[in-house]
Every structure is written in structure tokens, then in C-alpha cells.
Amino acid sequence: GEDVEQSLFLSVREGDSSVINCTYTDSSSTYLYWYKQEPGAGLQLLTYIFSNMDMKQDQRLTVLLNKKDKHLSLRIADTQTGDSAIYFCAESKRQTGANNLFFGTGTRLTVIP
Amino acid sequence: EAGVTQSPTHLIKTRGQQATLRCSPISGHTSVYWYQQALGLGLQFLLWYDEGEERNRGNFPPRFSGRQFPNYSSELNVNALELEDSALYLCASRFRGSEIDTQYFGPGTRLTVL
Questions:
Q1: pLDDT tens profile A6-33
Q2: Most CB atoms within 10 A, among A55, A69, B13, B96?
Q3: Is B102 within 8 Å of B94 (Cβ atoms)?
Q4: How far is CA B20 from CA A55, B14, B76, B82, B102, in A?
């Protein structure tokens, strides 16, 4: 399957941590990505994780991957108002030869000052 | 290094007309992808071009087509426009030899069909 699911909305207070969750159904996924989309803009690659990894940390961002449950999460520490955006998780499946990305529905993060 | 560029930024057409959207990939990237982001429908894969050939297409009708030029830039053509074609069209490029399959996106073209 190609379904990638995310919750639609998340609100957090400035300075708190945000956790955005994603589930996917295809265990053949090779890489999983997090993209950020600010209003009126394209997608900015935030981070990615290879499917044989459990965790990846990059400054304020921590990605956790539970391959058994097909669950991916993005934690943003010390969330700032500039983090308000839509966050998409995406998977790529090189084995299919397609190499295109399958995106979740996106989670709209609102940071309350 | 310049990122992926798209033109025009906005495009307004009427039903039945044709639209042409353009994309220039990052220098050195040979693969170009097109995605449609319609309101409430998320991002849907449209087309993938690599080395001038169409390699894969998503679940869209044939009136969505395109091409890739020798300089790896790409055009997306949408014929016989329908109201539901109104969306943000995003182009992404990828370096084919990249191990991590990362795609880098342009700012998009917002197509409005009246």
C-alpha cells in the first residue's frame, strides 16, 4: 500500500516541544522524509531517515522510526513561532523503480506565542 | 547554488484552455518530478522525467502531459482545463546518482481555472 497518514492539526505553545506523527503502510520503504511548507511556498526538506535507522537527531529536530509499527515521528524541541507551517512526511520506495515520493496529508502546526 | 525554479508564479485560465508550466532543476540534477497539491487533497504525484524520458506517471488523465528538455528543464502541459485542476503545481528535482533519493522542491505555480 501507499497510504501515508498524519493527523491534520497540532497546536503547541512557544518553547514547548512538538511531536508530529506519521504512519505508513509499505514496509518496503527505503527512505522517509520530513518536509516543511510555509504559507504560499514550496516544500523545504527538513530531514530524512534511512529505514534501517531508529533515530536521527539534527539540532532541534529528532526523528524516530518504529519500523515494526510503521510509525515515524518528528520532534521539534523549543518550538518557535517560525516553526508554524504544514509538515509532510513522505516515503520513497526505490524497489518499485518509480522513485517518486508518497506524501502524507500534512500536519498543520500552529505555535501559540 | 540556485534551487529549483518554476514559472510562472501564478497562472489564471478558463475552462477548456491549455496551461503550460515550466521548471528548471538544480544544476546537475537530471530527474524532474511534478506534483499536484489541490486544496484538501494533499500532494499527488503526477509525472517523473529522467534523461529526457517519461519514467512514471501518477493516476492522472492523459490531458496532463509534459516533457523534459536536453538541459533537463521540464514543462507540464494541462489540456482542456477543468475547474478541479486549480491547484499548486510543484516541481522537484533529484540527482539521479544520489543514494538517498532526496527531492528538492521549487516554490510552485498556482494555477487557477475559472
A1: 989 999 999 999 999 999 877 777 788 9
A2: B13
A3: yes
A4: 42, 13, 6, 14, 26
Which strands, in side-by-side order, build the sheet including B19-24?
A: B5-7, B19-24, B74-78, B64-68
Contacts of residue B92 in chain A, CB cutoff 8 Å?
43, 101
- Rounded distance, CA A91 to CA A30, Å? 7
Q: How much of chain A, in percent, has pLDDT values that exceed 70?
A: 91
* Parallel/antiparallel/unpaired status of strands A85-92 and A107-112: antiparallel
Name residue B43's beta-bridge partners: B37
- Residue B55, phi-psi category: left (phi > 0), alpha (psi -120 to 50), beta (remainder): alpha
- What is residue A8's DSSP assignment? S
| Least confident piece of the model among A2-11, A53-62, A89-98, B56-65 | A89-98
Residues on B contacting A at a C-beta cutoff of 8 Å: 4, 6, 31, 33, 35, 42-43, 45, 48, 55-56, 58, 90, 92, 94, 100-108
Q: Give chain A positions within 8 Å (CB) of B58.
A: 100
- Residue B104: which of A45, A94, A102 has the nearest Cβ? A45
Amino acid (1-letter code) at residue B71: N
Report the alpha-carbon distance of residue B8 to residue B11 in Å, rounded.
Answer: 7
**pLDDT attached to residue A98:** 56
For B105, the closest of A31, A43, A106 (CB atoms) is: A43
